[in-house]
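Quick log. Single chain, no ligands specified.
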Amino acid sequence: MTLTKGRLRSWRPAALSEAAADLRATVNAVVAQQRALTTQFGSRLAADWTGGAARAATAQGARRQGSLAAAVDGLGACAIVLGAAAEALTAAQRTMAAAQRVADSAGLVLHDNGSVSIPPALLATPRGDSYLDHLDKAVQLSTALARRALAEATEADADAARDLGRAAELAARARKMGLDIAAAMAATADGAALRALIEAGLVPDIRLQRIPEAARSDPSVAAQWWLTLSANQRALQIRANPELIGGLDGLPIQARDQANRITLAAELSKARADYARMLALGVNSVAAGQRRTYGSAEYGLPLQALKDKIAMLEAVDKQLAGHPERRLMLLDTDVPGRAAIAIGDVDHADHVAVVVPGLNQDVTHDMGRIVGNADRLNKTMLRISAASGDGPTATIAWLGYRTPDFGNVASDNRAETGAEHLRGDLAGLDAWRATTAGSGQGTPVHLTLVGHSYGSLTSGIAMRDAAPVDDLVIIGSPGVGVNNAAALHGVPAGHVYVGEADGDRVADVAHFGTDPNHEAFGARNFRTDAGSNANGEPTHASHGHSQYFNMHTTAVNNMAQIALGHPERVSYPLPDPPGTPASGGGSW
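-> predicted structure:
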């Protein structure tokens, strides 16, 4: 029988969950009684009764115990199958509900077979191409969601029917693998156990194998996939595959944070343990890239490399400890590492600013400074928003690339690589918010990119192509890789802003294209000298290359107003009086 929208809606996955819970309770009760009998009867009897009859009774008891254990395992396997089916069907119903919300929001009709049609009344009055494009996109999204829901529900139903019929076989396979069935039923707390269960065939692999391959490269696919999962499925994904989930663009920052914290804790614990063992064994000269075995442990990093890794991971951990408002959006644990820390609820903020640093910055030594800059910007945004009602805000300290040092700062190679990573993360932020907004579960986000120093070049290269950025702020820039703002196709016209502080020699270099602060570049220059904010309160001047994010400066106040979507509140320089000489060039 072909599954329909109506039949899917009528199913009650909660009933399967209840049945699974009843089976688990039965299994636990039988196991408890089995252990009591073994302790109270079998052990005592063996101590007081010997001879042929005693041996025969013991053998018979062992066979009965084996049969009982097999029955318990079979019931446990049924519980797992029913629980997995409940999760899969709940996810399918959520996907169908999302399809219905998309259809309803556009006035479309979602039919029982998963198809979507446009009522003639919507087309009776001409409304322009943009409206027709909107309808077309709504039809495509609603249809795709509905068909996915029906397909996944059909597959889940077939999986459950098959696996319930072979519950005893699945339980036997688990025992051969050394898996305890009671532990298997509690495997949601252990990613390794979950993977073992999947390999054993005990759990239909609705959580891992069904991650769309395209989700690894397309944030929109990843966002749509994640939206269809139940809370339990998401939690299991995070525990089973923290490194994948933590780096998957298109997923909410909250989920990536949970996954990355698991990876951070595990990698830090392992590095510390390896370091301690190597010290105890007197190991200090293992060649990098080689592996040697000492006793039962295998090490692949020299002692100094382990120290470096521990220092890097501890630097990230320090920025998270005691700060419940921070989220670990990105983590690469290979020294020198990459990391991004969000400040505030990026998943629900109305305004988000991404801060990209530049020259000679690394996770170990500079993560605190970069997070501090993003934190001060967010505090300024929050203060302004509280007074003007602009809604919740968040910022991201993004050190998602390996920045150049003084030896290779003249090259744009690091910026090219960083721009690729940056584009992916920006697309991921936009994809999740756009997907939740399209399903009626969220709102779009106003996204601002702030590039400082060499980070402005990284940002500029990222913005050569279309990107979901509403505003681009360039500060202390040696050039952004293009000669005019119009070449930054990822930013709307008129939304490129430039700030240059007095005494910032880096901002006068113009090594990577036209000086963005020059009129010919075509950006909107904002003030960085002493002045006042929109409320008339005095603001301080920024001086040199590193004071743009200082609190209560004109620069940070202007950047906050831009990030809040208020260019009219930004303070711009007055025109130079006639005959004023142009500023000279500078050097690194």
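The first strand starts at residue 109 and ends at 110.
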